[in-house]
Design brief:
Elements lengths: L2 H11 L12 E5 L2 E4 L4 E4 L2 H4 L8 H11 L13 H13 L6 E6 L2 H16 L3 E5 L8 H6 L17 E4 L10 H14 L6 E6 L13 H14 L2 E5 L23 E4 L10 E6 H4 L15 H16 L2 H19 L6 E7 L2 E6 L9 H13 L2 E2 L1 E3 L5 E4 L7 H16 L1
Parallel strand pairs: 3-13, 5-6, 5-7, 7-8, 8-9
Antiparallel strand pairs: 1-2, 2-3, 4-10, 9-10, 11-12, 12-15, 14-15
Helix pairs in contact: 3-10, 7-8, 11-13, 12-13
Amino acid sequence: MNNNELNERRLQATPRGIGVMCGFYADKAENATLWDVEGNEVIDFAAGIAVLNTGHRHPKVVAAIEKQLHAFTHTAYQIVPYEGYVALAERINARVPIQGPAKTAFFSTGAEAVENAVKIARAYTRRPGLITFSGAFHGRTFMTMALTGKVAPYKLGFGPFPGSVYHALYPSPLHGVTTAEALKSLERIFKADIAPDQVAAIIIEPVQGEGGFNVSPADFMQALRAICDTHNILLIADEVQTGFARTGKLFSMEHHSVQPDMITMAKSLAGGMPLSAVAGRAEVMDAPAPGGLGGTYAGNPLAIAAAHAVLDVIDEEELCARAAQLGEQLVTLLNAARADCPAIADIRAQGSMVAVEFIDPHTGEPSPEFTRQVQEKALQAGLLLLSCGVYGNVIRFLYPLTIPDAQFRKALDILSAALTR
């Protein structure tokens, strides 16, 4: 079976709403390398959309899953609990940048984590309102689509969405949005749309994912914390994409001097297995009544075992430090490329959460066309890249943090050629 034959089968068997980026089909993978069904090799700088910080099939993750597989695969934690779930909650509670005692609940997807954070926030505050930001991405369920600040392709044709959700501006110097202007937009919401004493939570990505890897300025995060404290609003950090060493810290919020009340996490938490979590201040997490949280597959035993191994690997292989080192190398290359690539408008980075934004150098307008050209050139040379951004004009880099040095250098050479030739 070749790629073309599989593609014909896909078009007949699956709906067009499931968009597929690549024209090749995976056969096997290891660390930062993918092989398709025809034996072609690709360096993976997408990592399943930020899921594989510890790489494809890390031996310790595989061993942990295999060990659990021989014990049991499912009981439903809410019916018959198991020690692995409790132990993982204990480990996360000890690591999250949250003041005071923390508690953690596990789910299956990032959207589930955000949905449950909303439920917890409303149960704790007894308020309906939610504030998020332009460019945000929080998931594909109806509540998380409402929270998401990017229409195409996530919200097209799917409305109406749940109410009591409001979008403030997210700081973006390139697009003329300062911290002061973003805060004014929040004040306008309080004046025009909902009183602050009716807001349950402000939900923010410390570094926006789909929005283009916009990094929250320190003064903006400090101001949000102060606003939340003044009005008894919960601050929720959505770390689904930023978590687990990607930014040079276990959590991106560790780069800030203030702490959230809750953190949502998923993606690289379990090294490719479906697992998400909400961690938060104990009194907040205890607000829902027994039975109010959960799910049939929430905290699946195989995924829990994988997550334990992921935390071990992050510590043993010092992946936070490696994220900072690799990110610095990539940013250096991108800055050097500016001389021969006038389309580069901005380079944004926090650790290995790195992105480059492109414009048409003649008009100054966002250039998704140039972005696609860079992706296509890189893929032809064996490097898989992802785009993002409200205008689709940003390339984000999500390589496994375990990528070998020689392979990383090869990938940077491919990227340099794709930018400058």
